[in-house]
Write a structure and sequence with these properties.
The complex is a heterotrimer of chains A (562), B (91) and C (582).
Chain A (H helix, E strand, L loop, with lengths): L10 H15 L6 H10 L4 H9 L17 H15 L1 H20 L2 H14 L3 E4 L15 E4 L5 E11 L6 E7 L9 E7 L8 E4 L12 E11 L4 E2 L5 H37 L1 E2 L2 E2 L4 H30 L4 H27 L9 H14 L8 H10 L1 H10 L4 H8 L21 H4 L1 H13 L5 H23 L9 H23 L5 H18 L11 H4 L12
Parallel strand pairs in A: 1-4
Antiparallel strand pairs in A: 2-3, 3-7, 4-5, 5-8, 6-7, 9-10
Chain B lengths: L12 H16 L22 H12 L7 H4 L3 H13 L2
Chain C lengths: L17 H9 L11 H10 L4 H10 L17 H14 L1 H21 L2 H12 L4 E4 L15 E4 L5 E11 L6 E7 L9 E7 L8 E7 L9 E11 L4 E2 L5 H37 L1 E2 L2 E2 L4 H30 L4 H24 L15 H8 L2 H4 L4 H8 L3 H9 L35 H10 L9 H21 L13 H24 L13 H13 L9 H17 L13
Parallel strand pairs in C: 1-4
Antiparallel strand pairs in C: 2-3, 3-7, 4-5, 5-8, 6-7, 9-10
Helix pairs in contact in C: 1-3, 1-4, 4-5, 4-7, 5-6, 5-7, 7-8, 7-9, 7-10, 8-9, 8-16, 8-17, 8-18, 9-10, 9-12, 9-16, 12-16, 13-15, 14-15, 14-16, 15-16, 16-17, 17-18
Classes of the chains: A alpha+beta (562), B mainly alpha (91), C alpha+beta (582).
């Protein structure tokens, strides 16, 4: 494998995989029977989290310079996805500490960062993130939890946060508090509260909320009553809360792709196993062409989502100024692409996807429910699409011009070590659009040349040309929409969906343009084919388009003996 | 990345004001003359996240770099125009 | 569909209309303390049990009579009316619909289609006295692939039939007084090796039976899904339903009725999902207004409404065609089951997006929604999966090309098929056939209608749609004509299967257009505006992969306004537009 190929970091993920496999093999943490039992009982996966703590997952939540892992956001994505492949509920339960910490990485002082890093890495402290309140939906500025300054520089905080992941279990919680009674974009500030330092009676947990999926997770709330909070709990300046949260969300939204990818891969594995063992019509399900298309298309969808997540995660390091566009795209697009794959796989699995105690202890129906929360986390799909729509005028202009940040893109799509993530470089709104999409025509030309030289399959060049054409059409569609405020028409959301597919296809395209092993080129070509299916109604994929992805999934399969 | 903007040759606060008014009118689908320059943009349904896209429009038109939070600190067209004046003068 | 009738003036409880009576019995689902209201339904679901008060209510109502043909003393006259009654149950609790009723009906149609007079009379008596009958087809290892069923009923040493093997995931198996068992009655391969057995469970030798533990499920949690294992269980020779060895044929013929009826019933679930999502959107504060003020929300709601109207149109025409073209019902039943469940599941899934995190919380403002999202799941694979319906249609394509689409003749459906409310010829179970013989009178109705002269007040846009679908039939015909014999079986290439989806799409379009063309001439009532047809056909284009576009704003605003009117007036969202307390 070439050193120039951008890859997922695998160190931590591999260690986690080994530890989880060992736990599962012993019938303990991460065994399917235990996952099913915890889900049925709505019990928190405590042993599972302990195992992840022992395997060092918490170090992925902390920047490298503060003692965290070296691979930055891609390494965290890779690690959390490995957990989600086993159990999305556990990934949600454990991964929350990154969400609670990230505001401090974005805006905390050196002292604040060091103190939090120590708590997370040395003590595996659980950190929650309290943004939402009852009845406020996704409107960050509707919150009523209020922080009032004391003469000595400390604060008093009163109010509720709900529903919050790990609100009860978390030792720390980073809350968005109203610091100006009038509210507004400058009316909120962030505080990292250490519950263990609060006096008796200053806080109480709100009861666990029963949920549709991730039933074992601690989805609860926190009520603060005149809670005294030290001056150094304030993260960033007074009134900086919204800006910090919006930049922090750029990282956490990108991370959500890990949950989707893990769930999708889990689904594919369960259904492929079923297809291999299922005898029908005198053969095996895995040998029927229609079933193979479902499996292959799902695998291609996952490869497409994988490309989007990989370049999305790398963008935080190489194109940080574009993360307002990239993170909204990845957050809306990846769960959307993966959910379709899961739905198709569910149909193939049939009744076994409905039974809670059959076929791997009902893991499919669990992951299906668990995965649906991903589209709601950190801003729903509609919220993220709205964010994307608000950036359409600029994005459309830049796609048409074909201009992009070539240096940043090279850092993202090349194999050189990524620069360290600089949170200060995250911008509330991208100035250079989304280089990954804007560079599609140029990269398509390189693909054409590579295919002509015999280094890529001819189909890759055809698909690259099609994607370039669709990217242009997308810019036209974006430009034709009238600018809107919050209330964008459904047509704009449909264009946003196309942008997401286009971004994912562009990611696969950039990865194809890097000289890579033949099998990787095959997978990426199938991902591009899937992208065109999503973009173009009636797109006719060649009948064998996804077939190369099926063979490795369903081997060995034999005709049943009857 | 200088090739991604197309600045008008000259711009003063009056021009900026008029242009912003048109922009906001388009966003909220109202006639430009109905836009009050001193009313916070949030009153027109352009909330804090949405004004960020207006920031991109400004940068794009005038070829300047604007810290997006400028629109939070100056939440109406009049104040925005005033705040942009030094940036435009320094081009 | 612009006019909303005021609720009926007569007392519904005394109404001769069974659906009105049922609605009156269920009362207001939102009323505190209603023993069959939303809270009770959710509590039963959480508990994994059937809603006992609901079962008592349906006993008192006499729901079972609707599963028994009129000739046998019941009230079953055809699928259309049964769908209407069962939809009222599904609106309240899909688990009650499936667990109390649908299972018994699925089993009974086998007997109504092929059973002896004695069997029919016995089963009618059993059902009319409140008994249940389980539909014992499913074996986990074979799913909907009935032909592979392994449970056997073969003569023992003394010539008596002995049952061996197991049935799994069968509703009510543990509590039903009767069971229709699908069994292999001949060891030979082929299509004449299975039979149904009608058995009275109390009379089976208990030492030859092992009850399997109940199967737990993620949705329809209250429905008791059981299993049973037989070991040399002797059964009487007269338990065989119909001609021995003709079981596959009986299943294929009788299940045409259930393949139409079940998706039709499930529209009650979508009706309530739509009402729940709308209620949630209206109540969910978001920024300066509510979620329902957002253009996207209105479009999503309008699209789900159009989906419901589309599905209902198709189901209604298929249900009526079972009377007017029973010999072709096999095609329409498979097409309905292919298209409608997928459409309902997609609509429920998109509606969930309206509720934000609310759909995920089981104790929030609209807790019913997450239940519906789980309850809708079995419509995909229950009874017949999409692929098994495709597999049923695929081999019928070439003959349909030759006898209907190329021949340019053959009868269209009688106009009464498209006039709900008009009397129909009696349903003839005996006329249901295994294949349609290449006749497709529904697509003939579309082709003929597309040639009608425009003008005369006909909507030009609808005429254009009709013409597009006529062209689609020609294109489909041309592609189907190229299918080779090896492309018609389960191992056919995917593009061959895709043709069956297009066929179903054409038939659904024909149903919508047929209802439009035969609409009442008074310009009143639900069918009088072309908007619903245009919206339904627009959605059909999405469901069959022709485009991905959202409903155009004029249509979505029109439908949204109608949706709100019906919501405020307490009316259902299907074409029947009936008062409901759901």
């Amino acid at each position: 494998m070439s050193a120039d190929v951008p890859e997922w970091p695998t160190g931590l993920a591999a260690a986690l995989a080994d530890a989880m496999a060992a736990g599962a093999a012993a019938g303990g943490a991460f065994s399917t029977a235990r996952s099913a039992a915890l889900d049925a009982a709505e019990a928190f996966p405590g042993e599972e989290c302990d195992l992840l703590d022992a395997s060092g997952l918490a170090r992925a939540y902390v920047p490298e310079r503060l003692g965290g892992v070296a691979g930055g956001l891609p390494e965290l994505l890779s690690a959390l996805r490995e957990v989600a492949r086993r159990d999305v509920t556990v990934a949600v339960a454990h991964g929350k500490t990154f969400l609670g910490s990230v505001s401090t990485w974005v805006a905390g002082t050196e002292d604040q960062q060091r103190a939090l890093a120590r708590l997370v890495t040395d003590e595996n402290a659980v950190v929650a993130w309290g943004l939402t309140e009852r009845g406020m939906g996704s409107d960050l500025l509707a919150g009523n939890l209020t922080a009032t300054p004391e003469p000595d520089g400390t604060w008093r905080i009163t109010g509720e946060k709900w529903p919050i992941n790990n609100a009860t279990r978390g030792r720390l919680i980073c809350v968005l508090a109203r610091t100006d009674p009038a509210g507004g974009p400058r009316g909120f500030s962030l505080f990292l509260i250490d519950k263990s330092a609060l006096p008796e009676g200053a806080w109480e947990p709100l009861p666990k909320e029963p949920t549709h999926g991730i039933r074992g997770a601690d989805i609860s709330g926190l009520r603060l009553r005149d809670a005294p909070v030290p001056a150094d709990a304030l993260v960033g300046g007074v009134g900086d809360g919204l800006g910090i949260v919006l930049r922090a969300l750029q990282l956490t939204r990108t991370l959500c792709a890990a949950l989707s990818l893990g769930a999708g891969e889990h689904a594919l594995r369960l259904v492929a196993d079923f297809a291999v063992e299922r005898a029908l019509h005198g053969t095996r399900l895995a040998l029927l062409p229609l079933a193979r298309r479902v499996l292959g298309r799902a695998a291609a969808s996952l490869a497409l989502a994988d490309a989007a997540a990989l370049l999305g995660g790398r963008s935080a390091h190489g194109l940080p100024g574009e993360m307002s566009a990239v993170s909204a795209t990845v957050k809306a697009g990846v769960p959307w692409i993966v959910q379709q794959a899961i739905d198709d796989l569910a149909e193939l699995l049939g009744a076994r996807g409905f039974l809670t105690e059959q076929h791997a202890d009902g893991m499919f129906q669990k992951l299906e429910r668990d995965h649906r929360i991903v589209a709601v986390f950190d801003g729903s799909t509609a919220v993220n699409r709205s964010l994307l729509i608000s950036q359409f005028p600029l994005l459309a202009r830049l796609i048409r011009k074909g201009s992009y940040d070539a240096t940043g893109l090279a850092a993202v799509t090349g194999g050189a070590p990524l620069p360290e993530l600089d949170p200060a470089a995250l911008r509330l709104v991208s100035r250079t659009g989304c280089s990954i999409v804007q560079a599609v025509p140029d990269t398509a030309e390189r693909i054409t040349a590579l295919a002509a030289a015999g280094e890529l399959p001819p189909r890759a060049a055809e698909l690259a040309a099609l994607l370039a054409e669709r990217t242009g059409a997308l810019a036209d569609a974006m430009a034709e929409l009238p600018p809107t405020g919050r209330n964008a028409p459904a047509a704009a959301f449909a264009v946003a969906r196309q942008f997401e597919a286009c971004f994912a296809g562009a990611a696969a395209l950039h990865l194809l343009a890097v000289p890579c092993a033949a099998d990787r080129a095959v997978v990426l070509t199938a991902a591009l084919e899937r992208c065109l299916e999503l973009l173009v109604p009636g797109h006719q994929a060649p009948s064998d388009a996804f077939e190369p992805l099926v063979t490795p999934l369903v081997q060995p399969v034999e005709e049943p003996v009857r | 990345m200088s090739d991604i903007t197309d600045a008008p040759a000259t711009a003063d606060a009056t021009e900026v004001r008029a242009w912003l008014r048109e922009c906001v009118a388009t966003y909220v689908r109202l006639p430009a003359e109905d836009i009050d320059e001193n009313l916070p943009l949030s009153e027109y349904g352009l909330d804090s996240v949405y004004v960020l896209s207006l920031c991109a429009d400004i940068e794009d038109r005038y070829g300047i770099e604007v810290e997006p939070t400028l629109l939070w600190d100056h939440p109406a067209i009049g104040p925005i125009s005033e705040a942009l004046a030094p940036l435009l003068a320094a081009r | 569909m612009t006019l909303v009738d005021p609720a009926g003036a007569t007392s519904p409880a005394a109404s001769p209309d069974p659906i009105d009576r049922l609605e009156a019995l269920f009362g207001d689902a939102g009323a505190a303390g209603n023993p069959v209201g939303r809270e009770a339904v959710l509590a039963a679901d959480a508990d994994g049990s059937m809603l006992a008060a609901g079962e008592d209510l349906l006993d008192a109502f006499g729901l079972n009579a609707h599963f028994v043909p009129e000739a046998l003393g019941g009230r079953f006259a055809g699928p259309e009316e049964l769908i209407g009654v069962m939809r009222a149950v599904y609106r309240r609790d899909p688990a009650l619909g499936l667990g109390y009723g649908a299972g018994s009906f699925m089993a009974a149609v086998n007997v109504w289609t092929s059973g002896s007079a004695e069997q029919q009379s016995w089963l009618a008596g059993h059902l009319l006295s409140g008994g249940r009958v389980a539909c014992g087809y499913h074996e986990l290892a074979h799913g909907n692939d009935f032909a592979r069923a392994e449970l056997t009923a073969l003569p023992g040493p003394d010539g008596q039939l002995l049952v061996n093997g197991r049935k799994e995931v069968v509703a009510n198996l543990a509590r039903a007084g009767a069971v229709v068992l699908f069994a292999r009655t001949d060891a030979a391969a082929g299509s004449r090796s299975h039979s149904q057995l009608l058995l009275e469970t109390a009379r089976l030798a208990s030492d030859t039976l092992t009850r399997l533990p109940r199967f737990a499920t993620v949705g329809m949690r209250g429905v008791p899904l059981g299993g049973i294992e037989f070991t040399d269980c002797p059964v009487p020779a007269d338990a065989v339903v119909g001609t021995p060895g003709h079981g596959l044929e009986t299943a294929q013929r009788s299940f045409q009725l259930t393949r139409i009826a079940l998706p039709g019933m499930t529209l009650g679930l979508l009706d309530t999902a739509l009402r729940t999502a709308l209620r949630g959107a209206l109540g969910r504060r978001l920024y300066a207004g509510t979620a329902a003020d957002l253009s996207l929300s209105r479009t999503v709601l309008a699209e789900a409404f159009a989906d419901l109207l589309l599905a209902d149109a198709f189901v209604t025409v298929a249900a009526r065609a079972a009377h007017t073209a029973p010999g072709q019902s096999t095609v329409y039943a498979s097409a309905v089951k292919l298209l409608v469940p997928a459409l309902v599941m997609g609509a429920v899934s998109r509606l969930s997006e309206l509720l934000g995190s609310q759909f995920y919380l089981r104790a929030a403002e609209q807790p019913l929604f997450q239940k519906l999202q789980r309850d809708v799941l079995p419509s995909a694979f229950g009874h017949a999966s999409r692929v098994s319906c495709q597999a049923a249609l695929l081999p019928q394509l070439p003959l349909t090309v030759r006898r209907t689409w190329s021949a340019e003749d053959g009868p269209a459906l009688p106009p009464t098929t498209f006039r709900p409310g008009e009397p129909l010829p009696p349903l003839d179970f005996g006329a249901l056939k295994v294949t349609a013989g290449g006749r497709d009178p529904l697509s003939r109705s579309l082709l003929q209608g597309a040639e009608r002269p425009t003008g005369r007040g006909e909507d030009a846009e609808l005429a254009a749609r009709a013409s597009q679908y006529a062209t689609e039939i020609r294109a489909l015909s041309a592609e189907a004509a190229r299918l080779t014999p090896d492309q018609l079986g389960p191992a056919a290439p995917p593009h061959a299967f895709d043709l069956t989806t297009r066929w179903a799409g054409v038939l659904a379009a024909a149903a919508c257009l047929g209802l439009w063309w035969e609409r009442p001439g008074d310009g009143q009532g639900p069918g009088a505006e072309p908007a619903w047809v245009l919206a339904a056909l627009h959605r059909l284009g999405v469901h069959t992969g022709r485009h991905h576009d959202p409903l155009p704003e004029p249509l979505s605003e029109f439908l949204y306004a109608e949706l709100l009117r019906r919501h405020d007036a307490g009316l259902t969202f299907d074409h029947a537009r009936r008062p409901t307390g759901a």
